Amino acid sequence: MSTNEITKKIRELKELQALMEQAQAEAEAIKDDLKALMIETGTDEMSVDVFKIRYAIVKGSRFDTAAFKKTHADLYAQYTRQTETRRFTVA
Question: What ranges in 42-64 are assigned the alpha helix state H?
């Protein structure tokens, strides 16, 4: 692949990424409007036409790795393993 072809592909990629970001921002704005409506009406669930939307509190538990590492450094080290991934970036 020539330098010109690579440059063209990168420009296409950048354009598509910009479109995706714009679409994502628009989708988030619509979600925010719907969430605000649900909060305003005091409802967790709405049925509209063929759609059912929910905006409810979900409780969960997460393991506090930082605190565990402070208090049990030896165990943390014993059960920690290295991972390797590849990251693609265009700057």
Answer: none
Alpha carbon distances (Å) from 41 to 8, 13, 37, 51: 50, 42, 6, 18
Residues 36 and 75: their CA atoms lie apart, in Å, by: 45
Residue 71 lies in a domain: no
pLDDT of amino acid 16: 98
Q: Is residue 22 part of a domain?
A: yes
Residue 68: phi, psi to the nearest 5?
-60, -40
Residue-number span of the structural domain to which 12 is assigned: 3-58
Distances (CA, A) of 12 to 1, 8, 15, 16, 24: 15, 6, 5, 6, 18
Number of compact structural domains in the chain? 1
Contact 55, 35 (CB under 8 A): yes
Domain assignment present for 65 = no
> Could you report the per-residue pLDDT of 11-42, keeping only the tens digit for each?
999 999 999 999 999 999 999 999 999 999 99
